[in-house]
Design brief:
This protein is of the alpha+beta class and 64 residues long. The chain has 2 helices and 3 strands, in the order E-E-H-H-E.
């Protein structure tokens, strides 16, 4: 299962996708700790939870 990191941004939801090369030496949690802006909440989710149609991606909302 491919894991993604989501977090709130001013225009909706930011999505971080760790690369396979990064994951050879780091965890998804380490990616979140390094790359999510300081003070922002985040969730690690399965990639299948993201809609395949990104037409309205600016309207997506982050929910805890």
């Amino acid at each position: 299962m491919k894991k993604l990191i989501i977090y709130p941004i001013d225009e909706g939801v930011g999505i971080l996708i760790p690369t396979p090369d990064y994951l050879l030496t780091h965890t998804v949690e380490e990616c979140a700790a390094n790359d999510v802006p300081a003070g922002k909440p985040y969730k690690i989710i399965d990639a299948s939870e993201i809609p395949s149609d990104a037409t309205f991606s600016k309207a997506w909302e982050y929910q805890e």
